[in-house]
TrEMBL record:
Domain MYND-type: 303-349
Name of protein: Zinc finger MYND domain-containing protein 15
Residue ranges, compositional bias (Low complexity): 693-706
Keyword Nucleotide-binding: no
Keyword tags: Metal-binding, Zinc, Zinc-finger
Length: 731
């Protein structure tokens, strides 16, 4: 089976959800509008029977005059002036945000220059979303309340969205069979203009529905028909947001609705009472997002086989393993009977059931917030925003926008290392009190094997969420002090005065490079060299060298390939304290040249998700150095063992839970398995050289009993995403 829950960029899941819901909304709106009045009345009657949501709902009217959407070289526009990019986020989603750039980017309609990255627009600061008191997104004629009726323009909506009534699934298939056509597309097409965005949220920030009013390509005359009949469009959006909310939760209607546009508020007065919703007495004027308002990370889930969202179909887990989500018996049977056998759910079901039994163990953590952050309904954005963690490295954990005045890395929201001040913990702080105290003057007297022991020595309160960032250096510490001595005692690693460590496929970890400063606190008498290696690292940092020292009162930065950053921990240290050197090699590991390392570490590796591992793993076997890797789930560990066997003939050690895993549970789209960053650790077991006395590679794990028949259809629709064989895995 194939899962990517622990690896895909948060923004990609969010984007796929937006397009998926919008595609369904456009198709349903056309069907209802083209049908008889009786069908629309039937829908209204259904909505009137829905339970009431006590939260206030908000219809945001967000005019857009300056930003357009430019389709890239690989983007094939849909029919007419529509959002043809919608079908690009189909069954083969990219795993990294930068992979979207060939398809779509934002441009300025004023000067033609490219705007900010798409991620900063879609996840815009909610404080900027407050409409003006008399904001009117359009001056074109709109229907009066008496004339307003349910939308019924299927031809126009197809053009506006670039999607046909059934979601253009046949177009997606056609795209796959005609790659040569995509290569020849022009990239200089005129940008599309989203003249107005209608957005339905609740007062807590959960997105419930979205509608894009398109003007077509830049330079087209007049205003598109999407601006006309705004009241009808808004009313249809509200009805669909109640019947199939985009965010989490069952269908429901709001206790009260407020609208961010004066004229639209007047026009909706005669419409929303039809579905039993009370409209606020006045349009939204002084209301602004509450302090905890965020775009919630609670998102609709999908069927593992057909990828339909929960707002389209009812999803239920497999009745045996309770791990995988399906929309019905047909998808469950299709997944059960997949060939070859080891990619079928029949093969994986008992194994996934065993993985699910570890959920309680993985959620056993000492923090005061453990119950919240290990829940399946955990909302990361709300948790971080409520604690003022909206800047620095905290923005790497979610779609939150960094706080103002923070210098950023050129390719992300990460502040640049060259712009740091003398505080090594600057990027780990929030808006409130200091989270990290000064480093203790004396080294630890014993080895730490749990978060609780480390927190107690470090002077951290168990209410502090710093473990989410410190999982990386503490995992390195745990490997050095516990796992290497256990598995490779002949190395005598605890008596070494210096260690050269390669951190492989380290794009994300390098974006959090200052968290590794904590290794100087934990291992003050060891000179450490961390070399970050991977083709996802920024090319501009290739071959750069940073030196982090504990005994200097301020930062000194020297430009060039040898970049020295001396940062102070705030206290003058005694004794022979060592430093930490950071090197960067922006290239695949198998082409790296240089001295042999003492240790190799990879975080959340996902061997099956990137082809370069098929070359890097044989390279590691030729070096035969201790190599430890973490994974987000036991499923990932099992897949890594298979890839290691294929690539080298070796294997991996049995995975064990990492006591320094991140406490934040990762929400999966098509399964209910417990995913945590750095949840499990294993090391590579190399194939013994001929005639050597090296330990043999582990044989295949004992096969779990494979059920002969699919789960009984007592509970329908359980599912997990079809696992593709490792060779077919997504890149």
């Amino acid at each position: 089976m194939e899962f990517v829950s622990g690896y895909r960029d948060e923004f990609l899941d969010f984007t796929a959800l937006l397009f998926g819901w919008f595609r369904k909304f456009v198709a349903d709106r056309g069907v209802v509008g083209a049908s008889s009045e009786g069908r629309w009345r039937q829908l209204e009657a259904q909505i009137r029977r829905l339970p009431q949501d006590p939260a206030l709902w908000v219809l945001h009217v967000l005019p857009n005059h300056t930003v357009g959407i430019s389709l890239g070289q690989r983007a094939e526009p849909g029919p007419g002036s529509g959002l043809g990019v919608a079908r690009l986020l189909g069954e083969e989603l990219p795993l990294h945000l930068q992979d979207l750039s060939p398809y779509v980017s934002l441009v300025s309609l004023e000067d033609g220059e490219e705007g900010e990255e798409k991620g900063e627009d879609e996840g815009a600061d909610p404080e900027k979303m407050k409409p003006e008191e008399d904001g009117d997104p359009a001056t074109a004629s709109r229907e009066s309340p008496q004339e307003a009726s349910p939308p019924g323009e299927p031809e126009d909506t197809e053009q506006e969205a670039g999607i046909c009534k059934d979601g253009c699934r046949e177009d997606r298939a056609e795209d796959k069979t005609r790659p040569e056509k995509r290569k020849g597309l022009r990239s200089e097409a005129a940008p599309l203009h989203v003249s107005c965005l209608l957005l339905v949220t609740d007062e807590h920030g959960t997105i419930l529905g979205i509608d894009l009013l398109m003007n077509g390509a830049r330079g087209s005359t007049g205003r598109g028909s999407g601006i006309e009949n705004l009241a009808s469009r808004a009313y249809a959006l509200l009805c669909h947001s109640m019947a199939c909310p985009m965010g989490s939760g069952d269908p429901r209607k709001p206790r009260q609705l407020t609208v961010g546009d004066t004229q639209l508020h007047r026009e909706l007065k005669s419409l929303v009472p039809r579905v039993g919703v009370q409209l606020a007495k006045a349009p939204m004027r002084t209301w602004g997002p509450r302090p905890g308002f965020t775009f919630a990370s609670l998102r609709a889930r999908t069927c593992h086989v057909c990828h339909k969202h929960s707002f389209e179909v009812k999803l239920t887990p497999c009745p045996q393993c309770r791990a995988v989500l399906y929309c019905g018996e047909a998808c469950l049977l299709a997944d059960w009977r997949r060939c070859p056998d080891d990619v079928s759910h029949r093969f994986w079901c008992p194994r996934l059931a065993a993985f699910m039994e570890r959920a309680g163990e993985l959620a056993t953590l000492p923090f005061t917030y453990t119950a919240e952050v290990t829940s399946e309904t955990f909302n990361k954005e709300a948790f971080l925003a409520s604690r003022g963690l909206t800047r620095g490295y905290w923005t790497q954990l979610s779609m939150l926008i960094p706080g103002p005045g923070v210098p950023r890395h050129p390719r992300s929201n990460t502040p640049s290392l060259s712009l740091l001040s003398g505080d090594p913990y600057q990027l780990l702080q929030g808006d409130g009190p200091t989270l990290m105290p000064s480093a203790p003057p004396d080294p630890p007297k014993s080895l730490f094997g749990s978060w609780q022991d480390y927190y107690q020595w470090r002077g951290l309160n168990l209410d502090c969420p710093m473990a989410v960032l410190l999982t990386y250096p503490l995992t390195v510490y745990y490997v050095i002090t516990h796992l290497v001595p256990q598995s490779f005692p002949e190395l005598n690693i605890q008596n070494k005065q210096s260690l050269k460590i390669h951190v492989v496929e380290a794009g994300k970890e390098f974006d959090l490079v200052m968290v590794f400063w904590e290794l100087l606190v934990l291992l003050p008498h060891v000179a450490l060299e961390l070399q970050f290696v991977g083709d996802d690292l920024p090319p501009e940092n290739d071959q750069q060298h940073f030196t982090l020292q504990r005994d200097e009162p301020e930062v000194s930065v020297r430009t060039g390939s040898g970049l020295s950053a001396r940062l102070s921990s705030g206290t003058k240290e005694k004794g022979g304290r060592r430093n930490l050197q950071i090197k960067v090699s922006a290239r695949p590991y198998h082409v790296l040249q240089g001295p042999k390392p003492d240790l190799v570490i990879g975080f959340n590796s996902g061997f099956a998700l990137k082809d370069t591992w098929l070359s890097s793993l044989p390279r590691l076997q030729s070096l035969r150095v201790p190599a430890f890797f973490t994974e987000s789930s036991e499923y990932g560990c099992m897949m890594d063992d298979q890839i290691m066997a294929v690539a080298t003939g070796g294997g991996t050690s049995p995975p064990q839970p990492n006591p320094f895993r991140s406490p934040f549970r990762l929400r999966a789209a098509d399964n209910c398995m417990p995913w945590y960053c750095n949840a499990f650790i294993f090391h590579l077991v190399y194939k013994p050289t001929q005639g050597s006395g090296a330990r043999p590679a582990p044989g295949p794990a004992a096969r779990a009993p494979t059920p002969a028949a699919p789960p009984a259809p007592a509970r329908r629709r359980r599912g997990e995403k079809k696992p593709g064989r490792w060779a077919r895995r997504r890149r």
